[in-house]
């Protein structure tokens, strides 16, 4: 599978709630660079992150555009996050089913047909403005 197809399949699995299938696309030593946070290393940390996100947020990504370099070892995706804030996340405003819509992007490293780095960026201040109202 080429890199663009891999990233497209990753986001299709995300949108369909198939987080276990997302994990199959990751290297065991994947590095997950979290927006405004630290780095989670390893597939188990990514699994825990997905479980937390699934319980706190319901999101659908639209307008996804995937880019990859010629060698296929780096990729990026730009998309719109359409979400509902389900459960209060520590350090963030209280959740009561607020909806939000904001642009985001992710950068990837790929090696041997597996994703080795996921770095996602979005505007946390804009997200907060939308959920606080």
Short précis:
The chain has 133 residues and is an alpha+beta fold. It has helices at 3-15, 19-24, 43-56, 124-132; strands at 26-33, 39-41, 57-68, 74-85, 99-111, 114-122. It has one domain (3-132): Nuclear Transport Factor 2, Chain: A (Roll), CATH 3.10.450.50.
CATH fold name, please? Nuclear Transport Factor 2, Chain: A
The profile of the biggest β sheet is: 6 strands, mixed
- Quickly count the helices: 4
Poorly predicted runs are none
The total count of strands amounts to 6
Q: Order of helices and strands, N to C?
A: HHEEHEEEEH
Identify the notable features of this structure and list them briefly:
133 residues; alpha+beta; Nuclear Transport Factor 2, Chain: A
Any overview of this molecule?
With 133 residues, the chain is of the alpha+beta class. The protein has one domain: Nuclear Transport Factor 2, Chain: A. 32% of the residues lie in helices and 43% in strands. It is built from 4 helices and 6 strands. It has helices spanning 3-15, 19-24, 43-56, 124-132; strands at residues 26-33, 39-41, 57-68, 74-85, 99-111, 114-122. It has a 6-stranded mixed β-sheet with strand order 2-1-6-5-4-3. The termini are far apart.
Ordered list of secondary-structure elements with their pairings:
Elements: H1 3-15, H2 19-24, E1 26-33, E2 39-41, H3 43-56, E3 57-68, E4 74-85, E5 99-111, E6 114-122, H4 124-132
Parallel strand pairs: 1-6
Antiparallel strand pairs: 1-2, 3-4, 4-5, 5-6
């Amino acid at each position: 599978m080429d890199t663009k197809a891999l990233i497209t399949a990753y986001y299709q699995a995300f949108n369909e709630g198939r987080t276990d299938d997302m994990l199959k696309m990751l290297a065991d030593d994947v590095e997950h660079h979290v927006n405004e946070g630290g780095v989670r290393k390893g597939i188990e940390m990514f699994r825990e992150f997905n479980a937390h996100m699934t319980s706190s947020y319901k999101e659908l990504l639209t307008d996804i555009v995937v880019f990859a370099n010629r060698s296929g070892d780096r990729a990026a995706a730009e998309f719109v996050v359409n979400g509902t804030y389900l459960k209060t996340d520590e350090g963030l405003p209280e959740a009561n089913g607020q909806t939000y819509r904001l642009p985001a992007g992710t950068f990837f490293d790929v090696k041997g047909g597996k994703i080795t780095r996921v770095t996602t960026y979005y505007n946390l201040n804009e997200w907060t403005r939308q959920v606080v109202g």
